[in-house]
Amino acid sequence: MSSGMRTYGTGRRYVSKDNAIWASLDESPQALHILDTNVTNNELNKHASSFSIEIGKKASCVKKSEDESVKLLPKAADKTEERHKKSNSHLVPTIIVPSHGRNIAKTSDSDVNTSITESKMTENLNAGLQNRPQRKSTQLSYLLGLVDQQIPISFRDYIKTFKSSIYKIGEASYSEVFKVEKDEPIVLKIMPFGKENQIRCSDIINELKITKRLSSLEGYVDLQEAVIVKGTYPSILIKEWDRYDRQKESENERPDFFHSSQLFCILCLSHGGTDLEHLELSDWFETWNIFLKAAKALATGERKFEFEHRDMHWGNILIKRRNDEDLSYLLDEVSFDEFEDSNTSFPVSERSFTADSLEITLIDFTLARMRHTGSSSPIFNEFDDPELFSGRGDYQFDIYRLMAKVTKGQWGEYFPKTNILWLHYLLYQLLYKKTIPKPRDLREQQLKERLTKLFKLLEPVRRPHKGSCPLQNCAFPSAASLDEWINQQYDD
Ligand SMILES: Nc1ncnc2c1ncn2[C@@H]1O[C@H](COP(=O)(O)OP(=O)(O)OP(=O)(O)O)[C@@H](O)[C@H]1O
């Protein structure tokens, strides 16, 4: 992996040996060291130091559990270590940020039983239901209500309803992601929940509600269906899992260990394309459009729902280029006459046009915050996993600490500035982590300069001096304000 670290796709995240990541950059966000040691919640500080790693040590597969004892992860971790010996010797594997808000729930199998009680549609589950085992069955009932089910359906039977081929396309901390081939392909995000080391039911509820709500907005993934299933992993998916493992070496444990009582939430989503980390960018038109569209999507989310993504790393930004056929109807509307006898070379406009034909889709709202309905309390994640704030070696991890600074731990409140932090991260990834061909003409050069200018404008902390408040330097309080500024500034 070019960046030397994996930021998603598994619970195990890696820090590059090169901790002096900023030393080589002119625009090094000063935030890193200042904020590392200054997270608002003292508890976080306490934990932050616990996760530092020593190169070459067997730290790769240990993590501190809640009771501070060090324990080995199951099989998958051993496999990871082996793999790293083989192919990733430049990485220092460690567990930095295992999952988002997916604390080790202190539940037993019986805590999440499948007996169905009357579903009570209380709106605010955030504060009330997390970490209360006695309410687990109420949470499950609530979740089933959200997906219009009375009881979980059989996992195998549900998968059988798909008549076309299914391929595994991705994986994450606690989920496996499959694609169902169709004219309009769909994606199945399969998340086991409710038991130890799995996603909390309350987190599933939040992700589902937010995904549903944003579904029709431009720039956000479409939720076509959500189901709660129960049972062992269907063999067709295991076969696909094995194929993926052979080709790409999965970081997860083979999902054949689940008990027949296991519950899963399956989100059926539109296919959003390739994530930014794995997409090769062809020019600065495209690069500009990715940033612009991400900023616009966040601005729309803010305006409609007081939305903050809070985890917009480059694995959560999907990009799809419309193919030539999709574009033909647009080409019909373009007059090429103006290019005749003109000094403007046609390829410039053509490239610009192509870049504009790109779609972005934001996914993964596990950590997101939004107002659900007018009167109800917001949906949000408590960020109560201290490991979220202890990552090192990538700007992504500093963003979590910066968010703690901005929110002062009041995660339920509305702080659109967190969207600006993620947009600054996005600019950094685009400008310094992607390999984009040099601008080939003036127009491309201008777009690159725009992005560089915005990178400076959005920088969270610039030359802080005594008594100054970090984050006060960035002029934009929200993605909406940035969007307005861009519209005024650049009318193209
Ligand atoms: N709708 C989609 N279309 C295409 N690919 C997708 C889609 N949803 C997920 N993926 C792929 O699967 C990966 C993991 O998905 P996602 O980020 O939603 O999982 P997660 O468990 O929430 O991850 P994280 O570790 O970031 O919490 C993505 O990075 C992407 O490559």
UniProtKB/TrEMBL annotation:
Gene Ontology biological process terms from the UniProt entry: attachment of meiotic spindle microtubules to meiosis II kinetochore; intracellular signal transduction; mitotic sister chromatid biorientation
PANTHER family reported in the protein's UniProt record: INTERLEUKIN-1 RECEPTOR-ASSOCIATED KINASE, SERINE_THREONINE-PROTEIN KINASE HASPIN
Record-level GO cellular component terms: cytoplasm; mating-type region heterochromatin; nucleus; pericentric heterochromatin; subtelomeric heterochromatin
Biological source species: Schizosaccharomyces cryophilus (strain OY26 / ATCC MYA-4695 / CBS 11777 / NBRC 106824 / NRRL Y48691) (Fission yeast)
The Protein kinase domain, residue ranges: 163-492
UniProt catalytic activity: L-seryl-[protein] + ATP = O-phospho-L-seryl-[protein] + ADP + H(+); L-threonyl-[protein] + ATP = O-phospho-L-threonyl-[protein] + ADP + H(+)
Keyword tags: ATP-binding, Kinase, Nucleotide-binding, Serine/threonine-protein kinase, Transferase
GO molecular function, one term: ATP binding
EC number assigned by the record: 2.7.11.1
Name of protein: non-specific serine/threonine protein kinase
Pfam family, any one: Haspin_kinase
